[in-house]
Structure formats: structure tokens, C-alpha cells
Design goal:
heterodimer, A: about 475 residues, alpha/beta, Aconitase, domain 3, 2 domains, five-stranded parallel beta sheet, B: alpha/beta, Aconitase, domain 4, four-stranded parallel beta sheet, 8 helices, 8 strands, about 15% strand
Chain lengths: ~475, ~200
């Protein structure tokens, strides 16, 4: 008998080519996603006159630098245009699939991978982007890497990795109405800390996770890195298999059935051990919002802005005061009611169809009090939303409807939040300057961002009327 | 790649926890070619807002002592380029973002993790102007009469000490990789992506 193993262990073991004496392992990589920002790695390949070892396992998607405005016009920013063209040129030269700005599959790399069936259970998948953990929602071992590692994967289709420890985060019960996977992951990070999972691979488990849709599972895994873990994963189940069936790059017909049989065996064995276990009651999770510039500053939206006077020590008191100064918040004031200047709905965290539906359900027939931008995660999501009339809901409410890409999450493509402006955002990072120099970001769910747009302030979506 | 052995000199202190890579280098600079140098981008916006910020584009101490979870967030290797181009050769902190630490090791930037209490002692020493020595071969950190041992993966240590080319090292294992791929084709036949235009039959 093989010793009981976790989902993580099973995938790791199946990809271990060899191990150094200290345990550092050379892993086979099944899928490598690259984007415009991967140009540093291609430059490293060129410098050493190396080729892409497995173009059939390499997929290029333009997302970080693409404008979210009209696709009919040339890209106005010459440097961005240059990087978008460079990805296309590298794809043509090395012969890998490229989903550029005019491709009907284009979108944010972490939306496109699962959507196209590129991401599958049991695979190893890497990308030069820290939100690669998103793909773990399908039961893949997926993690973000830096440019030197991207170059290594391009040249060898392998990666040297130290084996992380294993953490299981079990969510009991069920999430309450108006509480989403975004609230759950913010509550988890608030509980374990922004570095609480450094050195761990997280498996999300428990009935509340099993009850989540694939879109919601992707939101959950997406932000594993914000707790410090490079990878978050969920054991594949019937929800996963049904979602994958029929996707372009996934196995079809008999091959699919054979794959599902193997994928069912990936789930963590009942007796397998984790290095750390965390439990949360799903029913206790409230709609969450961040008040500061680190991810551990999430609080229930009906809470008050914390007071540095209550901090446990001088260092955290000072840090809290700095964050409150940057965010221009008053200690002790209710979070709900904080006036906002704009909203952003989109990103690899919350740019999928369910997210757009959740936001549209709140905005339908109502007017936004502040400007806002809605950016779908991919062209297929954009088309699906338009077929359902969601674009009209957003436009009629006064928000703008963009073209797919990372947009205002990353502050790269020209979609910035103005200095000092306060943005209710469905993205993943509230870091100082993340959405633009001096931008003040409050992270929340799509429903909360939509409700905030109508009120022009942070609000509790549980108190919003529904059509 | 740069070889790292012993780094000695004054140390700058950034005591706050969770300094993310967006702070170290704002995203808008990541589009710049590597050859142009990244030192001007180091903490660009933080410096603009704080004239007393201890690091600049040049003339920096070789060692940085930082708060917990240094380099968390985005995987941008530009954060490491900005530090090394500005002359920083070692960062000491209670802990690091995993991806940042990996990126650092591939660019000759030594990262040393030590308990909070020892970091506090080192910060005091650095603020008092004492030079700090990071001795990689002996896995030792020295400041004044204080000596602290540190742990490092043997693999990472060897790569830093010898300046190894990872890709070259891996390609030396081509036979093992080929054997894995041959074996894997039979054990996980579904792992190959379905071609976009399946051939008939």
C-alpha cells in the first residue's frame, strides 16, 4: 500500500523527474502560460541562443498591456504596443499558440487557461504571474514564477522547486446569502495573515467549498498568494468535470472519460496528513472589505475602521497609522458609508460571467452615483454577457463596458485610478499605488462593488433590495 | 551569474512588514528593457513621497534589513533587478515572499531569513552605524560582537556561491527528462492538450 497522500502530493509525485540531495525536485511542467510581460524571459533565451523546448505546451495570451478601450484602434501607447507585438513575434518564431488582441479566445491568462480547457486536473501549470494559483481551482498544481524561472521552463519544460509544506483550509457549513467566494478568501486572509501561508501549498476543502461553482472556486484559489502561498487548490469533483467537458483543449469523448477516471483518484486520501489545518465556519463569513494597504486588513463591512490606539504593540500601531493616513480613513468611523470616487469590476479574481451577473443583478434598473468600469475577463465572457444583456445593464446604470484584459487591477495598460481617488474594486491587491500612484483601493466582491456604485459609498449588500 | 560569498558593509533599515513588490518597483516600469538598468525605479513612488527614504537609485549600502514578508505580492522579477542594479547585494528579514526569494537567488541577491528578535538586534546595530557581514559559506551573520547562524537550502546556497546557470544544469539531465516524458505518455495519456483542429480519423 502507498501511504495516504494529499491532492498536492499526488500531483507533485507524478511530476518529479529527479531530486537533489536536499530534496529540491526537478518537476515536469504540463502547461506554461506566457503574456506580454514575459518578454524578459524571452530576452534571456535569445541571449543564450536557446529555443522553446515544448511550444505545444506553451500558450501566449495578451492581457496585461492591452487597452480596455476600443479594439478597433491601434494601441496608443507605443511601449505597450511594442510588448504586445513582441509576444506575437515570439509566438510566431517559436511556434506556440498565441491569443493576441484580435483572437476570439483572448482574455486574462488565468481566465483563458481554464476556459479553453488548457488547464486540467492533475496538471502542473506555471505562469510568470503570481495569480497563477487560480488554475488550482480545477485540481491542478499551479503557481506563479519569476522571469528567470519562465526562461527555465521555456528552455527545458521543467522547474527546480523545493517541496512546500501542506495546509488544508476547511470551510464548514455554507456561505450565507450575499456572501461570495471573494468574502470567504478575504476572511481567510484576515484570519491567517498576509504571510500566513508562506512556504505552504493550500488545499481548500469542506462542504462550503464543495458547494461553490467553478467560477467561485477560481476566485478562492486566485488569492492564495495574498496569504503568501504560491498555490491554492481544490480536489476535482463532478462540478469540475461537468465544467471542463467540451472545452476546446480538454480531452474529448473516450479520452475525456478515461481522464475523469484518473482525475477522481486525485482527491486527498482520508488518512493523509497536513502540516497545518485551519477550519472556518462558512456561515460566519460576512461581506468583507479591506480598509488598508495589505490583504490582512479585511473586515466585515459592518465593522468600524480600526483604531491604532488598540494595536498590540508600537510597530503595528505605527503601521496601522501609516495605512490609515494613506487611505485617509478616520479611526472608529463605520466602514459602511465611506464615500468612494469610482468602482472597478473585473480582473482574474472577479472578471468571470458569474461575477458580472452578480454585479448586474444589483445594478439592473438603477443609476450609479459614481463612475465605474466593468471589464470582462475574456472575449467569450464578454460575448456571453452581451448575449444576456448585462452590458446594457452596466451602461444604462452609467458604468462603462470595457474590452477584456487586466485593466485597472495592475495599473499597467493606462487604466489608472487618479491620485487620492478612492476605488471600490473587485481585484486582488490593495497595495499603495497598485491601481495608480496615490490610489486608494478597497477590495470587495462584485455585488458589493455594484452596491457601492449605486450608493457612492461602501455599503452592506445584505441591506440592498433585490429585484 | 554573479557569485555571492561574503557581503560586508553598512545596512539600510526598512522596518515595516509586508513591503510588496509593487512598492519596490511600480508596475509601469516593468516594460523597460533590462539593459537600460532598473536602479532608478527602485522604490520610485515611495521615495517621491518620502525624501528621507533610506534607499536611492545609487550609493546604497550593500545590505538591507527589512520587516516580515518582504517582497510579497506580484512575481515581478523587476523588484530584484531594481535592488541589485541599485547596489543591494543582500536582504535580511524575518521572512520573504516565496516568489521574490526565488527570483533573488537567480540574480545573485542573497536573502537571509532570521527570527524577529535577531532582526531587531541587527536593525539596532545598523541604525548605530555598525557594519554587517553576511557570510554565505559559513551561513553566519555578524554585526559588532553579535553572531547569528542562518539556514539556507543547500541547492540555493550552491547556486549563489557558484553562480550556476540553472538551465545548463538542467539540460545536463536531458536523458532523465526524456525518460520521464516517455513514461508519462503512457501513464497520463490525457495530459497532452487536444489540438485546436483535430485531424480526421
Amino acid at each position: 500500500m502507498i501511504a495516504p497522500r494529499t491532492l498536492f502530493d499526488k500531483i507533485w509525485d507524478a511530476h518529479a523527474i529527479l531530486a537533489a540531495p536536499d530534496g529540491t525536485t526537478l518537476l515536469w511542467i504540463d502547461r506554461h502560460l506566457v503574456h506580454e510581460g514575459s518578454f524578459h524571459a524571452f530576452a534571456m533565451l535569445d541571449r543564450d541562443a536557446r529555443q522553446v523546448a515544448r511550444p505545444d505546451l506553451t500558450f501566449g495570451v495578451a492581457d496585461h498591456y492591452v487597452p480596455s478601450h476600443s479594439r478597433a484602434l491601434p494601441v496608443a501607447d507605443p511601449e505597450a504596443a511594442g510588448l504586445i507585438a513582441r509576444l506575437a513575434a515570439n509566438a510566431a518564431r517559436h511556434g506556440f499558440d498565441h491569443m493576441g488582441m484580435d483572437d476570439p479566445r483572448q482574455g486574462i491568462v488565468h481566465v483563458v487557461g481554464p476556459e479553453q480547457g488548457i488547464t486540467l486536473p492533475g496538471l502542473t501549470l506555471v505562469c510568470g504571474d503570481s495569480h497563477t494559483a487560480t488554475h488550482g481551482a480545477l485540481g491542478a498544481l499551479a503557481f506563479g514564477i519569476g522571469a528567470s524561472e519562465v526562461a527555465h521552463v521555456l528552455a527545458t519544460q521543467t522547474l527546480w522547486q523545493a517541496r512546500p509544506k501542506r495546509m488544508r483550509i476547511s470551510i464548514d457549513g455554507r456561505l450565507a446569502a450575499q456572501v461570495s467566494a471573494k468574502d470567504l478568501i478575504l476572511a481567510i486572509i484576515a484570519r491567517i495573515g498576509a504571510s500566513g501561508a508562506v512556504g505552504f501549498a493550500i488545499e481548500f476543502a469542506g462542504p462550503a467549498v464543495r458547494a461553490l461553482s467553478m467560477e467561485a472556486r477560481m476566485t478562492l484559489c486566485n488569492m492564495a498568494i495574498e496569504a503568501g502561498s504560491r498555490t491554492g487548490m481544490i480536489a476535482p469533483d463532478d462540478t469540475t468535470f461537468a465544467w471542463i467537458a467540451g472545452r476546446a483543449r480538454a480531452p474529448h469523448r473516450a479520452a475525456f472519460d478515461a481522464a475523469v477516471a484518473d482525475w477522481r483518484a486525485l482527491a486527498t486520501d482520508p488518512a493523509a496528513m497536513f502540516d497545518r489545518e485551519v477550519r472556518l465556519d462558512g456561515a460566519s463569513v460576512a461581506p468583507m472589505v479591506t480598509w488598508g494597504t495589505t490583504l490582512d486588513t479585511a473586515l466585515p463591512v459592518d465593522a468600524r475602521v480600526p483604531d491604532p490606539a488598540d494595536a498590540p504593540d508600537a510597530a503595528s500601531r505605527q503601521r496601522m497609522a501609516e495605512q490609515l493616513a494613506y487611505m485617509d480613513l478616520i479611526p472608529g468611523a463605520p466602514l459602511a458609508g465611506t464615500k468612494i470616487d469610482q468602482v472597478f469590476i473585473g480582473s482574474c479574481t472577479n472578471g468571470r460571467i458569474e461575477d458580472l451577473r452578480a454585479a448586474a443583478a444589483i445594478l439592473r434598473g438603477r443609476r450609479a452615483a459614481v463612475p465605474g468600469r466593468v471589464v470582462p475577463g475574456s472575449v467569450p465572457i464578454q460575448r456571453a454577457a452581451e448575449a444576456e444583456g448585462l452590458d446594457r445593464v452596466f451602461i444604462d446604470s452609467g458604468l462603462t463596458w470595457g474590452e477584456p484584459g487586466c485593466s485597472m487591477c495592475t495599473g499597467i495598460n493606462g487604466d489608472y485610478v487618479a491620485p487620492g481617488a478612492r476605488c471600490a474594486a473587485t481585484s486582488n491587491r490593495n497595495f499603495a499605488g497598485r491601481q495608480g500612484q496615490g490610489a486608494r483601493t478597497h477590495l470587495m466582491s462584485p455585488a458589493m462593488a455594484a452596491a457601492a456604485a449605486i450608493a457612492g459609498a461602501l455599503v452592506d449588500p445584505r441591506q440592498e433590495a433585490h429585484p | 551569474m554573479t557569485q555571492v560569498a561574503i557581503v560586508t558593509g553598512p545596512a539600510a533599515v526598512l522596518a515595516q512588514a509586508n513591503i510588496d513588490t509593487d512598492q519596490i518597483i511600480p508596475a509601469r516600469f516593468l516594460r523597460k528593457p533590462r539593459a537600460a538598468g532598473y536602479n532608478n525605479f527602485l522604490f520610485h513612488d515611495v521615495r517621491a513621497a518620502d525624501p528621507a527614504f533610506p534607499l536611492g537609485p545609487e550609493g546604497n549600502p550593500p545590505i538591507l534589513i527589512a520587516g516580515a514578508n518582504f517582497g510579497c505580492g506580484s512575481s515581478r522579477e523587476g523588484a530584484v533587478y531594481a535592488l541589485t542594479d541599485a547596489g543591494v547585494r543582500a536582504v535580511i528579514a524575518p521572512g520573504f515572499g516565496d516568489i521574490f526569494a526565488g527570483n533573488a537567488s537567480k540574480n545573485g541577491l542573497l536573502t537571509v531569513a532570521l527570527p524577529e528578535a535577531e532582526i531587531a538586534v541587527l536593525m539596532d546595530a545598523a541604525r548605530a552605524g555598525l557594519p554587517v557581514t553576511v557570510d554565505l559559506p559559513n551561513q553566519e551573520l555578524r554585526a559588532g560582537n553579535q553572531v547569528f547562524r542562518f539556514d539556507i537550502d543547500p541547492f540555493r546556497k550552491r547556486r549563489l556561491a557558484e553562480g550556476l546557470d540553472d538551465i545548463g544544469l538542467t539540460l545536463a539531465h536531458a536523458a532523465e527528462i526524456a525518460a520521464f516524458v516517455a513514461r508519462d505518455r503512457t501513464t497520463r495519456p490525457w495530459s497532452a492538450p487536444t489540438p485546436l483542429l483535430p485531424r480526421a480519423g
